[in-house]
Specification:
This protein is an all-beta fold. It has strands spanning 2-9, 12-13, 22-23, 29-36, 45-52, 55-59, 63-64, 69-71, 82-90, 100-106. It contains no helices and ten strands.
Length: 159
């Protein structure tokens, strides 16, 4: 039996938790690895899908190809939403693997989608650390939120 073992999004490993998998590409590249318990078995076809809840954004259909990657070619990906990627493959005997999937999030892909504001300081840094913070109140109940942090490792984020 052939099965998909790992998923990758733009060369980074995908996890079941979308908080750890964010892309800023309008056409991300998905890839995967497969294993089989049968000698000389390999992938001969794949079917990739991207969904948002029950809505389908893209379905590649069955593609006869042993290449273990594909480039997204569906509807415009919405920024800041949890999206699901799934793939299944066929082997040399035409047997299909189970569906294997992971979640990802698209960052703000266009300037008008960016609603955040920079947190900055007028204070000169000198010899001491600067602390950036912003207090805010949530008026509505949230089901999810994303915080994008930029820096070269000099940050400690808490919410």
């Amino acid at each position: 039996m052939i099965e998909v073992r790992e998923l990758y999004l733009d060369c980074g490993r995908m996890f079941s938790d979308a908080r750890f998998c964010i892309t800023d590409s309008k056409t991300p590249t998905f890839s995967w690895s497969v294993v089989s318990d049968t000698d000389n078995d390999r992938q001969t076809a794949y079917r990739a899908q991207v969904t948002m809840g029950k809505s389908s954004l893209w379905d590649s259909g069955w593609v006869k190809d042993d290449e273990q990657s594909t480039v997204y070619a569906g509807k415009t990906l919405p920024a800041g939403r949890y999206l699901d990627f799934t793939v299944r493959v066929r082997n040399t005997r035409g047997e299909e693997s189970d569906v294997f999937g992971g979640q990802f999030v698209c960052g703000a892909l266009t300037a008008d989608a960016w609603k955040g504001k920079w947190i900055t300081s007028d204070e000169p840094s000198g010899q001491h650390a600067l602390y950036f913070r912003r207090d805010f109140r949530i008026e509505k109940e949230l089901s999810a939120a994303c915080l994008f942090v930029s820096g070269i490792g000099y940050h400690r984020v808490t919410v």
